[in-house]
Specification:
132 residues; alpha/beta; 5 helices
Length: 132
């Protein structure tokens, strides 16, 4: 299938390290566990309810470093960055090529990179809000 295929759902790419790090809840003691909790929250909510693209989304959670080893679950594909998570996220946005893509991060430089590829951006709160 071509990425611009209108039958494909919008792509939601979540910067796991950035989103997990936005909440001072002790995530640094168990980065993998924090990434698993984020993955489970994304699977339960299906992404932001007020995003720029109507859901449902194809959700990709990008993890790196000590958060590697988190398994995918139904509704959320987990991608391990071999190096920089930002580089993998930018590549996923580039590969979307015309397909609606929303990247969740507060990282200004990463936002600039993915917006140059045509993606939209939302902050961590968009996926951390309690479901409505």
């Amino acid at each position: 299938m071509h990425p611009a295929d209108p039958s494909l759902p919008p792509l939601l790419v979540v910067d796991g390290a950035n989103v997990v790090g936005s909440v001072p809840d002790g995530w640094w003691r168990d980065r993998r566990g924090a990434a698993e909790r984020l993955r489970d929250r994304l699977a339960a909510t299906g992404g932001p309810s007020d995003g720029p693209h109507p859901g449902p989304y194809e959700i990709v959670l990008v993890v790196e470093g000590a958060a590697r080893g988190v398994a995918s679950v139904p509704g959320v594909r987990v991608e391990e960055a071999p190096g920089s998570g930002d580089d993998l996220i930018a590549e996923l946005a580039r590969q979307a090529k015309g397909r609606p893509c929303l990247v969740v991060t507060a990282d200004r430089e990463l936002r600039r990179r993915v917006e140059a590829e045509g993606a939209r951006c939302a902050g961590p709160r968009s996926v951390l809000r309690p479901p409505t």
